[in-house]
Amino acid sequence: MKKYVILFVVTAFFVTVSCKNENSQTASSEKYQSDPLPSWNEGKSKASIITYVNDVTNSESPNFIPVSERIATFDNDGNLWSEQPAYFQLFFAIDRVKEMAAAHPEWKTQQPFKAVLENDMAELAKQGEHGLIQLVMATHAGVTTDEFDADVKNWIATAKHPTKNVGFNELVYQPMLELLQYLRANDFKTYVVSGGGVDFMRAFVTEIYGIPEEQILGSRIKTAFDYNNGNPVIKRLPELDFIDDKEGKPLNIQKIIGKKPVFSSGNSDGDLQMMQWAASNKYKSFMLYVHHTDEVREWAYDRESHIGRLDKGLDQANNNGWTIIDMKTDWKVIYPFELK
Amino acid sequence: MKKYVILFVVTAFFVTVSCKNENSQTASSEKYQSDPLPSWNEGKSKASIITYVNDVTNSESPNFIPVSERIATFDNDGNLWSEQPAYFQLFFAIDRVKEMAAAHPEWKTQQPFKAVLENDMAELAKQGEHGLIQLVMATHAGVTTDEFDADVKNWIATAKHPTKNVGFNELVYQPMLELLQYLRANDFKTYVVSGGGVDFMRAFVTEIYGIPEEQILGSRIKTAFDYNNGNPVIKRLPELDFIDDKEGKPLNIQKIIGKKPVFSSGNSDGDLQMMQWAASNKYKSFMLYVHHTDEVREWAYDRESHIGRLDKGLDQANNNGWTIIDMKTDWKVIYPFELK
């Protein structure tokens, strides 16, 4: 939950130019059968991934990694799906405030809710981090885990991205879906390790990414168990429990997975500590940064961005020889709908 | 971390009568091939387990459970291994204090360390919960996760139970090992969900239970990431982070697994909320309580015990028709070494 998210949500509501890609390419089914990464252009990034996987899964190789240690961790926002003009979870919070407003007449005069209801993003920005947390708590807490799950499922089924005009769940990266599948086919256990809310993600990403709920790590709020006369529920409380970002990523990986990743993929400085942790693995590890370079098909941003800033991470990736995906040249397509 | 643990550690040091079982039975290898639970006597407990598994894995059954939802959670202390005369992790803490004492001359005069070093368990008991937490923090924190892992591995390799005179890792329940294996053979994902320390367990139980580190949930202390000039470490801090007991069990299951168990096994009131949570599953679920009834081969205790008290849980199990293992009559053997 970052202060600057608010500043950028302004853009989300007023940008009207669609960046919809007109240059989609469809790989032939023949190609899919022979190439594990058909949406990737041939080049250094693709070659380095395939060389790594072939090496560490070859039992004759000195770099062979036992199956139980093949832990692959992926950031979500900006790494598996887009994150502009604001983290998609913020659109959920805003849409929920509007849905819930009828039951909360006081919100008409109470900030930050008033600003949301009036689409006054300049005012919302002024509410700062405190206002953002109020929005999140009002929309993510005060319900049971089952109720929240239903809220997210209902939202994702209909919500549209403000400029792409497709569902947020369609804005996942086709090349990364192929990479996840390729790693799993080679007995890697794929995880999401995101600063986003873990229960928000679990409500819908399993189906898209092929990653079960128990392999999704994220930020979370506190909860309480209520026996509820034999119909127990877990209630979501309006208090932060853990922020799965920066140092939080390796800490959460250690707490929950208990093993150091051998493959780690991210796109921002918030992923850097996870990368450093993977890079220190005694097994040969692979660090992959997605560099957002495609202002036509997706968005272009890095060192100066308030969302998904990639600055120190880019330096360390360059210095240490980590693989950096140039989205513009490395990826044939960005989104799955381009294949249709 | 319970106050009463201290009271019982007194017993650990002075009980000298060995309860070593002389009545071990060896099942023939022929029996093992045809019977998934060869160390279980025929009876209601065994039959109910097999009937349940056959039912919910039968795709023609109205009770069929999809593989992704076959989550089985097992308490550890008193459920997968013994827990008398004190939780085994406490013996680790005591042994570590003795090992570390040379580097801590101040402990000779400082409680609760003085009591441990002088084997003065009456005095240790007087130190109460505060003293116990001091012991735990001195022996479980102040090191990196790798160092702690090595500490536990070194300890378990040589430490002996005070009365059974075998390694603590030999005091696991053979019938439960078979049950874990049987469930996995039927595509259940088996988890440990214990009040014990998660990193303590991860150091050695994977090999014994066949449960990977990422499927072990437990209590934990706080941690910090240190980049350490390119050799990052995670440091263990002397502060509790989460107690995975009572309400903590369903909360931790929801946080980490994100799914309600369909099969849950425990032995104490500390497991009751986990049982209640599983019992509320929309899929047909199975609740299994281990009742310690065998004072000859193991220990006999329930409603009045300070370690592993089973009181409210026993009532609810009886009322709700949950399966209760009568250790004395249901299990042919208790420990794997009885089969040798």
Automatic annotation (TrEMBL), chains A, B:
This is phosphoserine phosphatase. It catalyses: O-phospho-L-serine + H2O = L-serine + phosphate; O-phospho-D-serine + H2O = D-serine + phosphate. Keywords: Amino-acid biosynthesis, Hydrolase, Magnesium, Metal-binding, Serine biosynthesis. GO terms for cellular component: cytoplasm. InterPro entries: HAD-like_SerB, HAD-like_sf, HAD_sf. It comes from Lutibacter agarilyticus. Pathway: Amino-acid biosynthesis; L-serine biosynthesis; L-serine from 3-phospho-D-glycerate: step 3/3. Its cofactor is Mg(2+). GO terms for molecular function: L-phosphoserine phosphatase activity; magnesium ion binding. SUPFAM superfamilies: HAD-like.
